[in-house]
C-alpha cells in the first residue's frame, strides 16, 4: 500500500499576494502553469521510459494492461465528463494542487528506493520541477484569492512500508504512480486551458479579430 | 378435319394435368441454401432420390452435362465463384422437379482489420472495421468494448454499416479500452482485438474551409484562413494547434509552419506571380496525432500588371476595377494639354500618372521575360 509522509509539503510558505498595481491579472501565471505542465509532461516521457525499463517486463511492454489493483490512495485524474466541465475554478485548482502534492510525495518515496544513481538523479530533477508546478498553482490560487488546501487532521498521509508488500506489488504501485502522473499532467493542461480562456480579458479577443482582417 | 381438333384439346388438357400434378407433388417449395468453400469439391445429392435414379441437373435453367453426374448426384470439383447459382434436379423422364439447391461459393473470413479514432474528443470515439479480402458471402460482425472490466455500448452508425460509436463517460482515465470484433459467416469465424489509451486515438478531422487570398500591393504574400473542424466539439477547452504547408505548384518541396493559435496566417515568402497550393492540418494541443491534410487551397500572390492578357483588350477605364491599386487614371487625363501648362498642384497628378505608366511598361517587360 502506497503511503507517504508529507507534512513538509502541506506547510508551504505562504505565497505573497501579487502586486495589484498594473496587475495583468492571473492570466500570465496561468499561462506559466500551463507551460510548466507541458514541460513536465515532456520530462516525464523520458523518465517513465527509463524507469519502466528498470522495472523490466512486463511493465515496460506497450500492451501491458493490468487491472487497477492496489494503489488506492493515488489521486486519480479520471473524472466524469459533465462533472469535470462544471467544476468551478476554485475546485479545479484545488484538485490539481492536492493531486500533485500527493504525487510528489510518492515520487520522493520512489526516489529513495531507486537502484541506479542516474535514475535517482532524473527522479530528483523531476521532483524539483514538480515542486515548481505546485508553487505555480499556489500562486494562481493566491492571485484569485483562494486559500491553499490544508490537510484535515487524521488524513495526513504517513509512510508505512507494508510488511507483506511483495517486490512485484511494489513494482505495480510504481507503474500506476507513473501512469497516474502522466494522466494528471494531460488533465492539468486541459484544466489550465479552460482557466486561461475564462480569464482572458475581452479586449484580447477584439485585437485578435482585427489582426485577422488587417494586412 | 374435325379429327385434329379433339386431339389438340386432349393434348392441352394432358399438359395442364401434368403441371398440376407436378406442382402438387413437388418435393420442396424453397430451394435449400448451401455454402461451400472456394476451391473445394462438393457433391450435391438430388434430394431423397436413390443413387441410381435417372435425373437431369440444371443450373439457372441451363442443362448440365451428364459427365458431371455420379449416379443421381452432381459432382462439382474446384469450385469457382462462377459456380454459384440455383441448381435443380429433375426426374429425367417426367421433368418432375425433385430438388433445388441455391449454391453460394465463398470463403471463411480472414482476420478483420479494426481501428478506432476520436475526432470528437472529449465526446467519444468511433471504431470501424473491414475485411482484408472479400468472402463473397454474407458476414455478420459483433463488436464489444471493454473499459477495464466495464462493458460499454457501441452504437451502430446510422449511415455506415462498418462503424459504431462509443461515448466517453469518464475522461482522463488510466485504464485502457479494449475493443474486440468477431466476424462470422457460414464457412467460418475470425476475431481480433485492439487495446489503447484514451489519449492515443485522438485525431481531429482536417480543418475546413481553407481559403488562400492574395494580399493587395504585396507580391510575396498570401493570406490563409481556415476553420476548426466542425466535428471538434469544444475548441475552447480543447484547443487545436495547426500545421500549414505550402509550395508553388512548380516545385516539389513544401514549406511548413506550425501555429499554436489562431485560424489565420500570412505567408510572407511566396515567389511572386507563382500559383501556390496550401494545406492545413490540426492536432489537439497536448494529446493524440495530427489530422489528415485539408482540402488544398490554391492562390497566386498579387502582381502589379493584369493577370490575364484578355483583360487588356478592355477599355483602359475598366482595367482599374479589380487587381491593382496602382491602376492608372484614364489615359485621356495623362495627355491633357491643359495640365501641362499649369504648375504646382494640378501638375502633380500628371507627374504621378506618367511615372505609373512608365512603371507599368517596365513591369510588363520584366514579367514577360520571367514567365515560364
UniProtKB/TrEMBL annotation, chain A:
Any GO CC annotation of this UniProt entry: extracellular space
Cited InterPro entries: 4_helix_cytokine-like_core (IPR009079), PRF/CT (IPR010681)
Highest taxon of the lineage: Eukaryota
Molecular function terms, GO-annotated: cytokine activity
Keyword terms, alphabetized: Cytokine, Glycoprotein, Secreted, Signal
Main location: secreted
GO BP annotations, alphabetical order: cell surface receptor signaling pathway via JAK-STAT; positive regulation of B cell proliferation
Oligomer status and interactors: Forms a heteromeric complex with cardiotrophin-like cytokine CRLF1/CLF-1; the CRLF1-CLCF1 complex is a ligand for the ciliary neurotrophic factor receptor/CNTFR. The CRLF1-CLCF1 heterodimer binds SORL1 (via N-terminal ectodomain); within this complex, the interaction is mediated predominantly by the CRLF1 moiety. The tripartite signaling complex formed by CRLF1, CLCF1 and CNTFR also binds SORL1.
Role summary: In complex with CRLF1, forms a heterodimeric neurotropic cytokine that plays a crucial role during neuronal development. Also stimulates B-cells. Binds to and activates the ILST/gp130 receptor.
Homology family: Belongs to the IL-6 superfamily.
PANTHER family documented for this protein: CARDIOTROPHIN-LIKE CYTOKINE FACTOR 1 (PTHR21353:SF7), PTHR21353
The protein, known as: Cardiotrophin-like cytokine factor 1
Origin species: Tursiops truncatus
Gene name per UniProt: CLCF1
TrEMBL record, chain B:
Main location: membrane
Signal peptide start-end: 1-22
Gene3D superfamilies to which the protein is assigned, alphabetical: Immunoglobulins
Gene Ontology molecular function, alphabetical: ciliary neurotrophic factor receptor activity; interleukin-11 binding; interleukin-11 receptor activity
GO cellular component: ciliary neurotrophic factor receptor complex; CNTFR-CLCF1 complex; external side of plasma membrane
Entry membrane topology: Lipid-anchor; GPI-anchor
One Pfam family in the UniProt entry: fn3
Sequence ranges of Low complexity compositional bias: 311-326
One GO term of the biological process aspect: positive regulation of cell population proliferation
Transmembrane segments: 350-371
Stated name of the protein: Ciliary neurotrophic factor receptor subunit alpha
Protein's organism: Tursiops truncatus (Atlantic bottle-nosed dolphin)
Organism classification: Eukaryota, Metazoa, Chordata, Craniata, Vertebrata
Name of the gene this protein is made from: CNTFR
Amino acid at each position: 500500500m502506497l503511503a507517504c509522509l508529507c507534512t513538509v509539503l502541506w506547510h508551504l510558505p505562504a505565497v505573497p499576494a501579487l502586486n495589484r498595481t498594473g496587475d495583468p491579472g492571473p492570466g500570465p501565471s496561468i499561462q506559466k502553469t500551463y507551460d510548466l505542465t507541458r514541460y513536465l509532461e515532456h520530462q516525464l516521457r523520458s523518465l517513465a521510459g527509463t524507469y519502466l525499463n528498470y522495472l523490466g517486463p512486463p511493465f515496460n511492454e506497450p500492451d501491458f494492461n493490468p487491472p487497477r489493483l492496489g494503489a488506492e490512495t493515488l489521486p486519480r485524474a479520471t473524472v466524469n465528463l459533465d462533472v469535470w466541465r462544471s467544476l468551478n475554478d476554485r475546485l479545479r485548482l484545488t484538485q490539481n494542487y492536492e493531486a500533485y502534492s500527493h504525487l510528489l510525495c510518492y515520487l520522493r518515496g520512489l526516489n529513495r528506493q531507486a537502484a541506479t544513481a542516474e535514475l535517482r538523479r532524473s527522479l530528483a530533477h523531476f521532483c524539483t520541477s514538480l515542486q515548481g508546478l505546485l508553487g505555480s498553482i499556489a500562486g494562481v490560487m493566491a492571485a484569485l484569492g483562494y486559500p491553499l488546501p490544508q490537510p484535515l487532521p487524521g488524513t495526513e498521509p504517513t509512510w508505512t512500508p507494508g510488511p507483506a508488500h511483495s517486490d512485484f506489488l511494489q513494482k505495480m504501485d510504481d507503474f500506476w504512480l507513473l501512469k497516474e502522473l502522466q494522466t494528471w499532467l494531460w488533465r492539468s493542461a486541459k484544466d489550465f486551458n479552460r482557466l486561461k480562456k475564462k480569464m482572458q480579458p475581452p479586449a484580447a479577443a477584439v485585437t485578435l479579430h482585427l489582426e485577422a482582417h488587417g494586412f | 378435319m374435325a379429327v385434329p381438333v379433339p386431339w389438340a384439346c386432349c393434348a392441352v388438357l394432358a399438359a395442364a394435368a401434368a403441371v398440376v400434378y407436378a406442382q402438387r407433388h413437388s418435393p420442396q417449395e424453397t430451394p435449400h441454401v448451401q455454402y461451400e468453400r472456394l476451391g473445394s469439391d462438393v457433391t450435391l445429392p438430388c434430394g431423397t432420390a436413390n443413387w441410381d435414379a435417372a435425373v437431369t441437373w440444371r443450373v439457372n435453367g441451363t442443362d448440365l452435362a451428364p459427365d458431371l453426374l455420379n449416379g443421381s448426384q452432381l459432382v462439382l470439383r474446384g469450385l469457382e465463384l462462377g459456380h454459384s447459382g440455383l441448381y435443380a434436379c429433375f426426374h429425367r423422364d417426367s421433368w418432375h422437379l425433385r430438388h433445388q439447391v441455391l449454391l453460394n461459393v465463398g470463403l471463411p473470413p480472414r482476420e478483420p482489420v479494426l481501428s478506432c479514432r476520436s475526432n470528437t474528443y472529449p465526446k467519444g470515439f468511433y471504431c470501424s472495421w473491414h475485411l482484408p479480402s472479400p468472402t463473397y458471402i454474407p458476414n455478420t460482425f459483433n463488436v464489444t468494448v471493454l473499459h477495464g472490466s466495464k462493458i460499454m455500448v457501441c452504437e451502430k452508425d446510422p449511415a455506415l454499416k462498418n462503424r459504431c460509436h462509443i461515448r466517453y463517460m469518464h475522461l482522463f482515465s488510466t485504464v485502457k479500452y479494449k475493443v474486440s470484433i468477431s466476424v462470422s459467416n457460414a464457412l467460418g469465424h475470425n476475431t481480433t482485438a485492439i487495446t489503447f489509451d484514451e489519449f492515443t486515438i485522438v485525431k481531429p478531422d482536417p480543418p475546413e474551409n481553407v481559403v488562400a487570398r492574395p494580399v493587395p500591393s504585396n507580391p510575396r504574400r498570401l493570406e490563409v484562413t481556415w476553420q476548426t473542424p466542425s466535428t471538434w466539439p469544444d475548441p475552447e477547452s480543447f484547443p487545436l494547434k495547426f500545421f500549414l504547408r505550402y509550395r508553388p505548384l512548380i516545385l516539389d518541396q513544401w514549406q511548413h509552419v506550425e501555429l499554436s493559435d489562431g485560424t489565420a496566417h500570412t505567408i510572407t515568402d511566396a515567389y511572386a506571380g507563382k500559383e501556390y497550393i496550401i494545406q492545413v492540418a490540426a492536432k489537439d494541443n497536448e494529446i493524440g496525432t495530427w489530422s489528415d491534410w485539408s482540402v488544398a487551397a490554391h492562390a497566386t500572390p498579387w502582381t502589379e500588371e493584369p493577370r490575364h492578357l484578355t483583360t487588356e483588350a478592355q477599355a483602359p477605364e475598366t482595367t482599374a476595377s479589380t487587381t491593382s491599386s496602382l491602376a492608372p487614371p484614364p489615359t485621356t487625363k495623362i495627355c491633357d494639354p491643359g495640365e501641362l501648362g499649369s504648375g504646382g498642384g494640378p501638375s502633380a497628378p500628371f507627374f504621378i500618372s506618367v511615372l505609373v505608366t512608365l512603371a507599368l511598361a517596365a513591369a510588363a517587360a520584366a514579367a514577360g521575360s520571367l514567365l515560364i
